[in-house]
Backbone:
């Protein structure tokens, strides 16, 4: 099973929308896919019209017992299941600190899905704490959407420093540009500069698009409702580049 996290230190950068569309694209290739919504806001769960059962609480995630697996829900799309978020997930860091090996707990939790799914996508909460470190240690790829603005660039630097300070494998960290406005010279110049400085940034860029916003209102992935739209084509390109990186890593 391949595990891919969608993460950023800050919110509002297109993380959840990317998670929703990439999980859909993966499942559309007849690959059993699970999208684990770990953000207590539950935006990915909302997009797929699923609600968490009462028994799904933060403690169930940490323990990784039957309550977690029994909380998985089918989506409206073949091969795509959803593990919905619960508001209690805001307490996950607190529960993790009580564990014997708090930095590697999620690896054991995610292993429970091996055999049932080919891909696990994780919509991570914003912030950088013990929970984020757990996810980083358990993933094959950490995708980080960044808006081409000064604040987002500084955020990227903080995440890179965190990986270095914690001795994490920074090769799994793959940024990509999100919410790009091609009419803004600042966006275009920032993209050009950062691509020269950081070869890890993926080539695909997700545009700022009203179609993407409307798909959230429709509570469906953009790639399912408007495959020929500019945004859907951008997500498809991003997915192809992710697979190239993943298969290349496996081959090497």
Residues:
């Amino acid at each position: 099973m391949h595990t891919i996290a969608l993460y950023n230190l800050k919110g509002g950068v297109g993380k959840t929308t990317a998670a929703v569309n990439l999980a859909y694209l993966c499942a559309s290739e007849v690959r059993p896919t699970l999208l684990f919504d770990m953000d207590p806001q539950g935006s990915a769960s909302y997009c797929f019209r699923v609600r968490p059962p009462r028994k799904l609480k933060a403690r169930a995630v940490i323990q990784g017992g039957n309550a977690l697996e029994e909380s998985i829900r089918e989506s409206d799309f073949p091969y795509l299941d959803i593990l919905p978020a619960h508001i209690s997930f805001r307490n996950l860091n607190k529960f993790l600190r009580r564990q014997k090996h708090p930095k590697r707990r999620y690896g054991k939790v995610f292993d429970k899905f091996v055999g049932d799914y080919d891909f696990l996508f994780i919509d991570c909460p914003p912030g950088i704490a013990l929970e984020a470190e757990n996810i980083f240690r358990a993933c094959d790829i950490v995708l980080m959407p960044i808006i081409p603005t000064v604040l987002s660039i500084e955020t990227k630097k903080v995440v890179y420093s965190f990986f270095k300070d914690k001795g994490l494998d920074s090769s799994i960290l793959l940024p990509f540009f999100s919410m790009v406005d091609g009419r803004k010279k600042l966006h275009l110049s920032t993209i050009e500069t950062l691509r020269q400085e950081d070869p890890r940034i993926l080539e695909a860029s997700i545009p700022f698009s009203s179609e993407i916003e409307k798909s959230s209102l429709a509570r469906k992935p953009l790639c399912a409702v408007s495959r020929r739209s500019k945004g859907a084509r951008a997500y498809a390109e991003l997915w192809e580049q992710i697979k190239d990186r993943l298969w290349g890593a496996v081959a090497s």
Observations:
- The CA atoms of residues 18 and 235 lie 7 Å apart.
- The mean pLDDT is 87.
